[in-house]
Write a structure and sequence with these properties.
Blueprint: H1 2-44, E1 48-51, E2 83-92, E3 95-107, E4 114-125, E5 132-136, H2 160-165, E6 170-172, E7 182-186, H3 189-195, H4 198-205, E8 215-219, E9 222-228, H5 233-248, H6 274-277, H7 283-315, E10 321-330, E11 338-345, E12 348-354, E13 362-366, H8 386-400, H9 402-409, H10 423-426
Helix pairs in contact: 1-7, 1-9, 4-5, 7-8
């Protein structure tokens, strides 16, 4: 049975380890490609790329990453705290812009037992104006039923700065027709009226689409939005332009006097190739998986198939009949003594171990229809319950074939890259922590 044990080890140890190694290698290659795209993106805008401890969002101390995913009992589904990965920082006129991404690892039922989700945040440093949240109204509820556009919107969480002062947080009027699509919340109605002006709301309404940001937050000298997924230059340039245009509509938000020039991004940006978005696997890993699968098919399927044929054939008496005489009993274990028997084929006498019988008893047996000597196991007569156990072994072998298939089919998580960012990296130029 040594060969069977080797096959079991291959299924339960070698292949999972090979799949995990190949998946990690593929994620490293994907991360390297992602970093190259970000470097090209930043270079085209005269900016820089930050990693690990320097990649935190400026507003992380106001709104921590993945705050919803870590609320309540859902925090127990995570394996560690959020990690910062990359941040792209650049300037557009008077505005300092930062696009950062973070990752969160959660438990799952996949092959690796975990999966990683990403979140990115687009931020622009502004003057320290009144806290304000602009949000796009939902027109249907979770069941798809229409919502009255004149009904009050659900208030977003109170910003950290407002909560620290114990100030009021209420909905403020938005002029028609923008009030059919936008809702605003603030603690300073006069400042909000100047910020949510007709020009600003018209700019936002012209850029609403399903993938656009839904919540725009002004707080502590920042305007920021949060979106799912990793940094995508093509999509995030559109978001940055939306925020820049919104700030240009609010003169008091500018950290310096307006220069009369457009700050929107018009430079060409790199695009993420489709193959870089999905999980990749190295060539060596693919070859290893294929060779491992071939070994399993030949080994498990072959051994299971031989046992299945021999078990069925012996049960129906299709093999050559052989008589086995029980000749000896070893008292190695009183409850399960070792029995030995002898049988004769072509004038030669052979010995074999037996699972039942008494010394001197003659047992009826049949020779296997298919030989198993290719596995290093002697071809011996099948007696008693042996055919039944062959059927059980064949079922186990066929069941084990499902394990590598499941490993290959299961999706693997992306590798989280960096550690939590420092407080210094979260603060934009000219703002207070």
């Amino acid at each position: 049975m040594t060969t069977v044990y080797v096959l079991v080890v291959v299924v339960l140890v070698v292949l999972p380890a090979l799949a995990a190694w190949s998946s990690r290698r593929g994620r490293r290659r994907q991360d390297t490609a992602h970093a190259a795209v970000l470097e090209e993106f930043a270079a085209g805008l005269g900016g820089t790329v930050h990693r690990k401890r320097q990649a935190g969002a400026w507003s992380a101390h106001l709104k921590p990453p993945f705050d919803r995913q870590l609320a309540g009992f859902r925090r127990f589904l995570t394996t560690h705290r959020p990690r910062n990965e990359y941040a792209v920082e650049f300037a557009r006129g008077p505005w300092r812009v930062r696009i950062s991404e973070a990752s969160l690892e959660r438990r799952s039922t996949g092959s690796s037992g975990r999966n990683t989700i990403h979140e990115r945040r687009v931020e622009i440093a502004t003057a320290d104006i009144a806290p304000l949240v602009l949000q796009v109204k939902q027109h249907t509820d979770v069941d798809g039923r229409p919502i009255d556009p004149d009904a009050g919107a659900t208030a977003p969480p109170v910003p950290a700065t407002v909560a620290a002062r114990g100030g009021a947080w209420v909905e403020t009027p938005v002029s028609t027709p923008a009030n059919q699509h936008l809702a605003a919340f603030t603690g300073d109605h006069a400042a909000a009226a100047r910020m949510v002006n007709a020009q600003a709301t018209a700019w936002l309404l012209d850029r609403l689409h399903p993938m656009a940001p839904r919540i725009f937050t002004f707080e502590s000298g920042l305007l920021y939005v949060t979106l799912p997924g990793r940094i995508d230059p093509a999509k995030d340039v559109e978001t940055v332009n939306t925020l820049l245009g919104l700030l240009d509509c609010i003169p008091e938000a500018s950290p310096t006097p307006p220069d009369g020039q457009s700050h929107l991004i018009t430079e060409a940006v790199p695009t993420t190739r489709p193959e870089e978005k999905g999980s990749s696997m190295s060539t060596l890993g693919v070859v290893g998986i294929i060779l491992g699968m071939l070994a399993l098919v030949v080994g498990l399927f072959g051994y299971g198939g031989v046992n299945l044929v021999n078990g069925v054939a012996s049960a129906f008496g299709l093999g050559d009949d052989v008589t086995v005489t029980v000749t000896d009993e070893t008292e190695w274990n009183k409850r399960n003594p070792h029995l030995f028997g002898e049988y004769t084929i072509d004038g030669e006498t052979h010995s074999m171990a037996l699972s039942s019988g008494e010394v001197g008893e003659v047992l009826d047996g049949t020779m296997p229809v298919l030989p198993v000597s290719w596995l290093g196991i002697d071809d011996e007569p099948l007696t008693g319950w042996d055919p039944f156990w062959l059927l059980v072994i064949s079922a186990v072998c066929f069941g084990l074939l499902a394990v590598p298939i499941w490993l290959v089919a299961s999706s693997s998580s992306e590798r989280p890259a960096a550690t939590q960012g420092s407080t210094a990296s979260r603060n934009p130029p000219g703002t207070r922590s």
